[in-house]
Design brief:
10 helices, Serine Threonine Protein Phosphatase 5, Tetratricopeptide repeat, about 15% strand, alpha/beta, disordered N terminus, seven-stranded mixed β-sheet, Glutaredoxin, elongated
Length: about 260
């Protein structure tokens, strides 16, 4: 995913990306000319979540974001999510196409003629992502962050779809901080982040964080969570060593017990 990192740090406080429209307010739905000369709406009344990405050609962060959203779009392919990218007409078609091609972008690319949409929303940053719900209300605006940008956008989409609550999203955005400054504390930080990722359905990245936790400080909760995730993926043969390690440390470790039950052990 290029320079887009999805690590263990929390997101810094976001600058207000749209200075003219706040979360909860209605977003206009203009029909804009696309890069291929057609017309396309900014958001769809048929979708539960519409995602629009303001990007700038020849900018690394924009390219990283577009690449990440290509993967994200595939993840939500079976769900009612509408995707578009938006670019100012101050860039030449050749410059826009070069970025689109490099990012392997397949979603419609809307050309904001005269920067009209930029002005209505009050776009100040690049890249920035807006998410609109099915009623045309702004559900989220996400300016670029080098840390955890992809997880945050994914969580906001799931919130707009009604798959998670705002409280669950908050826990992912702000994993519980450990008061410990030892290796155990750092490991716990990874573990807490893994639990947050699991809440929004990202088991693959949750497993990565659990493994990072175990590399730093092996613990019963980390082994147990690893066993649970593997068991839920149907990988019981891989889960058993973690089950045994967790239960050896703590015979009553909850996640390990759950994994053992799922694997019929």
């Amino acid at each position: 995913m290029g320079g887009l990192l999805c690590g263990v740090l929390v997101w810094p406080a976001a600058d207000r990306a749209f200075s003219n429209v706040a979360v909860g307010e209605s977003v206009d739905n203009p029909s804009l000319k696309t890069l291929d000369g057609k017309r396309h709406d900014l958001w769809s009344k048929k979708a539960q979540a519409s995602v629009f990405i303001f990007f700038r050609p020849r900018q690394d962060h924009s390219l990283d974001t577009l690449r990440a959203m290509v993967d994200c779009e595939k993840e939500f392919a079976s769900k009612p999510v509408h995707w578009v990218a938006v670019v100012s007409d101050s860039w030449t078609p050749a410059e826009v196409r070069a970025t689109v091609t490099e990012a392997k972008l397949d979603m419609p690319v809307l050309i904001d003629e005269g920067d009209t949409l930029y002005g209505k929303l009050g776009v100040r940053l690049h890249p920035v992502i807006g998410i609109v719900d099915g009623r045309g209300k702004l559900s989220a605006y996400e300016p670029f962050h080098e840390i955890n940008y992809c997880e945050r956008v994914r969580g906001e989409i799931r919130f707009a779809l009604g798959e998670i609550t705002r409280e669950e999203l908050r826990k992912v955005e702000n994993p519980e901080k450990s008061v410990m400054r030892t290796d155990e504390g750092v490991a716990r930080r990874h573990l807490n982040f893994a639990k947050g990722l699991l809440r929004i359905g990202d088991a693959a990245k949750a497993l990565e964080e659990v493994r990072r936790s175990l590399e730093i400080f092996p613990s019963a909760p980390a082994y147990g969570l690893q066993a649970k995730i593997l068991a839920e993926q149907g990988k019981c043969a891989e889960a058993i060593p973690s089950l045994e390690a967790a239960l050896k440390i703590d015979p009553a470790e909850p996640s390990a017990m759950e994994g053992r039950k799922r694997c019929g052990k």
